[in-house]
Design goal:
The chain has 5 helices and no strands. It has 219 residues and is mostly helical. It folds into 2 domains: 124 residues; 49 residues. It starts with 25 loop residues before the first helix and ends with a helix. 6% of the residues are buried. This is HAMP domain-containing protein. Keywords: Membrane, Transmembrane, Transmembrane helix.
Length: 219
């Protein structure tokens, strides 16, 4: 395959860095978590309200029968009703908590690769092509998208390296100061983009080189 295989290596979190943040974009995550919690809460209420109504009605009937036949059972029935109310309330709160946690975790997994890719792309926009290759953490999703982006980045980097090699093969006459300065500027820019350190040659340096070449020819 062109420019090598597109392999996504797992990125390990350095020791001591700690867990990754769950909140990457508050407005996005809170909005869709609210949608999920509202939907689950609506479905739970539609089930719990009729269940609670019929349970209370049935226990009222049992209590009235217990008063007539076995009064000592009334205390047990009231205790059962109390525990049942506590259980239903705790179940509803637990369901909302789990839904909120899963919503935040799901939206975090959706955003994490995009945020990492955006930061990497921002560095490329600043001309920092010598940064490490983009690697998607093993627990994140969007594997195909990450492979495509990694291939795109390495292809652009390879094109820049090819352009640098072609520029280095050019032979520019130092007497032509504008062309020589533009050539050195392109070389310096390409090398800086690829992380190759080189001092930038200004127009004054080009003039000095031209004068030195003239003195050498005269002598």
């Amino acid at each position: 395959m062109l420019y090598g295989r597109r392999v996504i290596e797992p990125q390990r979190v350095p020791h001591g860095q700690g867990p990754r943040r769950f909140i990457l974009n508050k407005s996005f995550q809170y909005k869709y978590c609210w949608y999920m919690v509202t939907a689950v809460a609506g479905g739970a209420v539609l089930f719990l309200l009729p269940a609670y109504y019929f349970i209370v009605q049935n226990y009222d009937l049992f209590k009235s029968l217990a008063y007539d036949t076995h009064p000592y059972l009334v205390e047990h029935l009231e205790r059962e009703v109390t525990w049942l109310k506590i259980f239903l309330s705790a179940s509803f709160l637990f369901l909302m908590g789990v839904t909120l946690f899963l919503g935040i975790r799901m939206t975090k997994n959706l955003l994490s690769p995009l945020v990492t890719m955006e930061r990497h792309m921002h560095q490329l926009m600043l001309g920092q092509w010598h940064i490490p290759d983009y690697h998607l953490p093993e627990e994140d999703d969007y594997r195909d998208l990450a492979m495509t982006y990694d291939y795109f980045y390495r292809a652009l980097k390879a094109n820049t390296e090819t352009e640098l090699k072609l520029l280095e093969k050019l032979s520019i006459d130092p007497q032509n100061r504008e062309a020589y300065a533009a050539w050195k500027h392109l070389l310096a820019e390409k090398r800086a983009r690829l992380g190759i350190r080189e001092e930038f040659i200004t127009n004054d340096s080009v003039v000095d080189l031209s004068e030195f070449d003239q003195r050498r020819r005269v002598s």
